[in-house]
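User: quick one, fold this
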Amino acid sequence: MNNLAFRNCGRRDFLRGLPAAAAAGLALGDSLASPMPAAAQAVPAGGGAAFQLFTAATLGDDSKALDASPGNNNLVDDKTFTVVLTTEKRKSAAEFEWHEGRDHIFQILDGSTVYEVGGTPKGAHSKGPGEWLAPESDGATTYTLNKGDMLVIRRGTPHRRRTAESVTFTLISPQGTVTLQGFRIGGIE
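Assistant:
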């Protein structure tokens, strides 16, 4: 049923159409619950793997390796999103950065770090298409993130990180354009 029919209708018309919409939803729900053929599960329309599993044991081993030699482990590097496991020790960003084409979701797994987020960049310069740096950002808010904390930074928001001791985190970064039936998701259309 076209949801446009419900957008500009009166209460009576809405209530008349509701049982049909509910029935359509149940039918759709039943079809989604049925098992998919193995071929459909293996490769999505865009190509690549339909899913990847990272077990706690695998992530634990990766974290130990990064603790011994701090840096990044790119778990997923796709054109629509990336997932990175990072450990850093005593590291500070000299400049604020922001991105026109991607968001950031940080989840702190161990340790702590300080983020400065937002404000108005001063002395901005481009480091490439859609990627910006600035030595200052007037009015930035400072947050100390500890194990278990999560920070979501929308595209276009200046941010920088300072780690006094050690931090391990995952970064999920949606990027590009993703369309889900007309909904705008995380700054992504």
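User: anything notable?
Assistant: The domain at 56-174 is CATH 2.60.120.10 (Jelly Rolls).
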